[in-house]
Design brief:
heterodimer; A: mainly beta; six-stranded mixed beta sheet; four-stranded antiparallel beta sheet; globular; B: seven-stranded mixed beta sheet; 11 strands
Chain lengths: 114, 114
Amino acid sequence: AQSVTQLGSHVSVSEGALVLLRCNYSSSVPPYLFWYVQYPNQGLQLLLKYTTGATLVKGINGFEAEFKKSETSFHLTKPSAHMSDAAEYFCAVSAGNNFNKFYFGSGTKLNVKP
Amino acid sequence: EPEVTQTPSHQVTQMGQEVILRCVPISNHLYFYWYRQILGQKVEFLVSFYNNEISEKSEIFDDQFSVERPDGSNFTLKIRSTKLEDSAMYFCASSEGRGGQPQHFGDGTRLSIL
């Protein structure tokens, strides 16, 4: 079975500071991993994904994430936070080619202070 | 960029009534999904749909729920006899393929059961 744990339901950073949002997954098969962002009253927007190949993946808005199999992690980072990054971020895992279901983490709300 | 659109954005219904949530997936996508998010909880998978039939469903998706693709563009979720605990945000998603393909989400329908 698959599951996702996001440590920290709320993270607060200053504008210009490093953003680090943590995601650990559990999967019985090689996982496909995703990060989504949700702005208020909007749907989930794909930030980036890892399927195979390079373990450091780059996404939109300057975000990137690194797949670390040994740590079962897929943490999301951005070198310098912007006010517009304030939103809720969701990590998700799917179980591989034969499955459609995404398992989501509980989400992390990012607050960016001026 | 193509979008998944959902209507209505907010639906208020009396307990016991039937409700239909509507979605227009991205036109060249083949897989369709419904997820729900109860306030303060994780986004949960309900059902996936491919080639005019359900390909996977969760234990939440009981006999009260049904999905349909009545024409070439719409994808609907029907809840036959709503309960208070059905109050949630319902998200429709679509993807070109399965597994590693990202799912594209609509903005959701907030369902409130009175």
